[in-house]
Structure formats: structure tokens, C-alpha cells
Write a structure and sequence with these properties.
CATH class of the domain at 272-363: Mainly Beta
Strand content: 25-35%
Shape: flat
Distance between the termini: 124 Å
CATH superfamily of the domain at 272-363: PDZ domain
CATH topology of the domain at 272-363: Pdz3 Domain
Number of helices: 5
Largest sheet: 7 strands, antiparallel
Strand order of the largest sheet: 5-4-1-2-3-7-6
Structural class: alpha+beta
CATH architecture of the domain at 272-363: Roll
Length: about 375
């Protein structure tokens, strides 16, 4: 009879766990797959992208970044007009023929019932006509905003496509902008793109509450086309500003001020005059204090018979806030005042001899 053991001696060896087996299986699969990939590349070379060497790849992947801009440009071509010198019609054709020399600048539609906007650098007299789409219009009425230099004129049309204005706080350096400019002797427009390189381009260290205090600066590229009053849009199609020639420097009149000019036009109101000259202390080297200092070295800092003088504002006062709006590098006295109308009352917070005061001013 065969004798059987009643027990076995204990051992320290354990059977392999399922986790270890799973990890081992995955590693073997990865190694096998990679080996197969290398073998396939040797036997059957491919010409596609090397995903293991994307950094050194010399393949060019082309992406049409201009497509969104061109789509919006096509849309707003109906909102951009050309301003031309008046020329006689040819008897054989019955229509005026325009050349590049007759082109004075651009205009943009601001209301559906016929109001367009340009600048005082384009529209200097009444002997002009406007081309919008495939039609030639005469100017019926003119209104000018002395503060910004914007000029509005009306044509006989009631179904136009007005533009949208961009909010000031949304403007960023580096934005891609584009413009449409009417092309003489054609129904098409010329399309240009630029980058916004400065959102607060100050032209003088001494500013006025009654004049534009800053412009927008674009990456100016030389062209052979007249860009005066050309409207520049962002990628969303909002108007950022229109071209203005400031002593040979191509800048943009900010949409912030142009939008306020349109509101005055539609409401039939006039801009008020505060009559103050000041220094933007935060945006001038040598000054470390915030606010706007009422001062000018040669001219009267506070105009005679002005609301500022009547309220008791003095040369040397430092304006730090208007109502709840604090003066900052991007929000000067001039900029903040655009939110108010003639007859409004404001509380101007000032520092005089390092003592804070509140002055009530009726605009």
C-alpha cells in the first residue's frame, strides 16, 4: 500500500497576482506593437507625418487663417463707401467715371436710414459724391463733431447696413484688424489687414478735456491706396476705429469717441465744453502719482467763462475721480466725461494741497 503524506511543509512562494499578470501583458503588447511599427517602416516606407519627430518635421501644414476675416470683410463691404470728387458724366455712357485721383477717402454706414460717417480730412467741401455698392449718391445733409473730427452726411437711402461699434474694454494689443477700401473703376473693394500695436497712443503730454486725448495705433504698412477714414474692424466685425492722419502718423480715431458722436447726432445734442487742460500723470515719465494734473505751461489751464472755473477748479488741482469712475492710465478725464451730456451734474474728486475735496460741476 502506498503511503501518502498527511501534510506539506509550508513555503514562502505565492502564486502570481492578476495585477502583475495584467501589467506584464500590457508591456509585452506595447513592445510587440512598437517592434512591428519599426519593421513596417523599414519594409514599407511611408511619406506621411512622422509622429515621433514632429519638432524636426519639415512638412508644412497650411491653415487658412484669413478665412474668418475675409468672410466678415465680404459682409461689411456693403457698409463701406467711397467719397469722390464730383465729375461730369460722359454723354456716351450716361454715368460718371472715377479714377484713383478722384478718390478722397472712405465712409462707413452708421444708420440704416442714410447716415454715413467719415472725417474732416476727407469731407472738406460739398462738391463730392458717394459710391456705395453699385450706386452713386449725392450728399443731402452734413453734420460735424468738432471734438473727434468725425463728419456725418446723409444720402437718399433707407435700407443700409450699419456697422457695430466695439466696446472699449475689449480692445487688446495684438488684435488682428482689417479694412475695406473702395476701389475706383470697380465694384470691388481693396482688403488690408493690420495688427493693433497700441491701445492708448497719446500725441501730446498736455491734453484737453475738449479734444481727443488718445488714438489707436496700428502696424502701419505702406500702401498705394488712400486710407483716410478707412474703417478698421476686428475679427468679429465690430468697428474699432477709422484712419486719421496725425502729422503723418497713421492712427485710428477710437470707436469709443465715434460711438458717442453718433449718439449726439441721433439725439440732436451738442457736446459740452469743460475747458480744462491737464497732464496725464500716470502716462508721462517723471510722474509717479496717479490722476490728471490741471496744468499747462503756456496756455490757460482753465478756460475763462467755463463750467470748471465756475465750479472753483484751480490750476494745480489733481483730478482723481469723476463720480464713481477713477482716473487711470486707460481712463483719463476726457474719456470719462464722454459718458455725460450738457446739463448733467458731476462730482469731481480732487486733491488740493494733499487734501481731498469734492466739487460739484454742472456741465
Amino acid at each position: 500500500m502506498e503511503r501518502k503524506k498527511h501534510f506539506e511543509r509550508p513555503t514562502m512562494k505565492r502564486p502570481p497576482s492578476m495585477v502583475n499578470l495584467t501589467i506584464l501583458t500590457i508591456l509585452i503588447g506595447v513592445l510587440a506593437g512598437f517592434s512591428g511599427y519599426l519593421l513596417a517602416r523599414q519594409v514599407f516606407p511611408v511619406s506621411g507625418i512622422d509622429y515621433f519627430n514632429l519638432v524636426d518635421s519639415r512638412k508644412e501644414i497650411k491653415i487658412d487663417l484669413e478665412q474668418p476675416l475675409t468672410n466678415v470683410a465680404d459682409k461689411y463691404q456693403k457698409s463701406v463707401a467711397g467719397v469722390y470728387k464730383s465729375v461730369k458724366s460722359l454723354p456716351a455712357v450716361g454715368q460718371p467715371l472715377f479714377s484713383e485721383e478722384d478718390f478722397l477717402g472712405s465712409a462707413v454706414v452708421v444708420t440704416s436710414d442714410g447716415w454715413l460717417m467719415t472725417t474732416n480730412q476727407v469731407l472738406k467741401n460739398d462738391s463730392v459724391v458717394v459710391i456705395l455698392g453699385d450706386k452713386v449718391y449725392e450728399i443731402l445733409e452734413i453734420s460735424q463733431d468738432e471734438f473727434s473730427g468725425a463728419v456725418f452726411f446723409k444720402i437718399d437711402s433707407n435700407s443700409l447696413q450699419p456697422v457695430d461699434f466695439q466696446m472699449t474694454d475689449d480692445i487688446k494689443v495684438g488684435e488682428r484688424l482689417f479694412t475695406n477700401v473702395d476701389l475706383a473703376r470697380s465694384l470691388d473693394h481693396v482688403f488690408y489687414t493690420n495688427f493693433l500695436i497700441n491701445t492708448h497712443y497719446v500725441t501730446d503730454q498736455y491734453l484737453s478735456s475738449d479734444q481727443v486725448d488718445y488714438y489707436l495705433q496700428i502696424d502701419n504698412k505702406l500702401t498705394d491706396v488712400n486710407l483716410l477714414a478707412a474703417p478698421y474692424f476686428n475679427i468679429n466685425g465690430d468697428l474699432v476705429g477709422v484712419v486719421y492722419d496725425y502729422d503723418g502718423q497713421v492712427v485710428l480715431l477710437p470707436a469709443e469717441y465715434l460711438k458717442q458722436a453718433v449718439k449726439h447726432l441721433l439725439a440732436g445734442t451738442e457736446r459740452f465744453s469743460l475747458g480744462v487742460r491737464y497732464v496725464d500723470m500716470e502716462n508721462n515719465s517723471g510722474f509717479i502719482r496717479k490722476g490728471n494734473l490741471i496744468y499747462h505751461p503756456t496756455l490757460k489751464a482753465i478756460a475763462i467763462n467755463s463750467s470748471a472755473l465756475d465750479a472753483g477748479l484751480k490750476t494745480g488741482d489733481q483730478v482723481v475721480a469723476v463720480n464713481n469712475d477713477v482716473i487711470s492710465a486707460d481712463r483719463t478725464l476726457t474719456s470719462i466725461l464722454q459718458n455725460y451730456r450738457s446739463g448733467d451734474k458731476i462730482i469731481m474728486k480732487i486733491l488740493r494741497n494733499d487734501i481731498e475735496r469734492d466739487l460739484e460741476i454742472k456741465l
